[in-house]
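Work Package 4 report. The design task specified in the project plan requires that, given a folded chain encoded as structure tokens, an amino acid be chosen for each position. We show below one input record used in the internal validation round.
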């Protein structure tokens, strides 16, 4: 094989056409890889082919396979960069950028550079969630709440599966509420979750908490009704319905509606003392008003 390689080297040196020169060098590279079992020498020879014939068909693919075999990740990144320079179709460019992002994230341990490639992939294919999933992972790993929220917002739009949107939406709501101090945005995220899963208990409970904290009483009433309807146990329905009556009575000054709600509680649990006391309180207040008017 040494003699064969030397002959091919001489032929390559005397060849005038780049394609012919590259053909002789390819014979050397294939021999080094398949016959001599020396993939690193083969990589060097394939690289020489690209120097004399940059458009040599298949050479980048051959290099890619060998770089993966020997674990030369920086060399593989260079191969992907060259493929990226040649690629025209957005889908192909996005795939190459995602591969580059994966290399710099996992093998080359450079998260910021990985982010750059994933963001470029997202720019190439704005409606493909793949790059956003990777950006989600990276921003979450370094607690970059601001950029993570932007990515999660985008995923909420792009993800086709309702289950995934629910999971992403719950994370986004928690991020807005606990990390970014944006309760309105947290409420928007939770409402989006309930669009994907109208009876999602966690989202409805979160909306209750946020609406109560912000004094959004009518919105809270609507959510409490939904939670009561979806309650799994009678005791939970009693508690939620009583809370609904309390909001109507104390925050909305709607005593007639509150009475109807308290009575609904007592139909479920006739001995529910808080509702009994609430009805007595409203009755006494009504008597007081009548006396005052008289």
């Amino acid at each position: 094989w040494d003699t064969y390689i030397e002959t091919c080297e001489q032929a390559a040196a005397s060849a005038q056409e780049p394609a012919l020169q590259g053909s002789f060098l390819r014979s050397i590279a294939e021999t080094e890889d398949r016959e001599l079992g020396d993939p690193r020498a083969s990589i060097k020879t394939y690289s020489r082919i690209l120097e004399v014939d940059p458009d040599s068909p298949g050479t980048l693919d051959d290099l890619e396979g060998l770089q993966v075999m020997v674990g030369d990740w920086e060399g593989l990144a260079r191969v992907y960069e060259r493929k990226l320079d040649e690629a025209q179709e957005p889908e192909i460019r996005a795939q190459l950028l995602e591969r580059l992002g994966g290399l710099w994230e996992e093998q080359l341990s450079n998260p910021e550079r990985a982010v750059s490639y994933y963001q470029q992939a997202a720019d190439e294919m704005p409606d493909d969630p793949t790059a956003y999933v990777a950006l989600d992972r990276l921003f979450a790993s370094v607690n970059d709440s601001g950029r993570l929220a932007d990515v999660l917002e985008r995923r909420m739009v792009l993800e086709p599966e309702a289950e995934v949107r629910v999971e992403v939406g719950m994370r986004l709501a928690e991020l807005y509420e606990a990390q970014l101090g944006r309760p309105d945005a947290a409420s928007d995220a939770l409402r989006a979750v309930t669009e994907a899963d109208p009876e999602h208990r966690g989202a409805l409970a979160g909306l209750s908490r946020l609406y109560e904290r912000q004094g959004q009483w009518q919105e809270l009433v609507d959510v409490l009704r939904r939670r009561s309807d979806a309650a799994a146990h009678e005791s939970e329905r009693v508690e939620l319905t009583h809370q609904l009556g309390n909001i109507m009575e104390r925050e909305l000054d709607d005593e007639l509606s509150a009475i109807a709600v308290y009575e609904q509680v007592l139909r479920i649990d006739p001995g529910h003392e808080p509702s009994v006391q609430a009805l007595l309180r409203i009755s006494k207040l009504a008597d007081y008003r009548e006396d005052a008017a008289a």
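The first helix runs from residue 2 to 14. Validation will be extended to a larger panel in the next phase.
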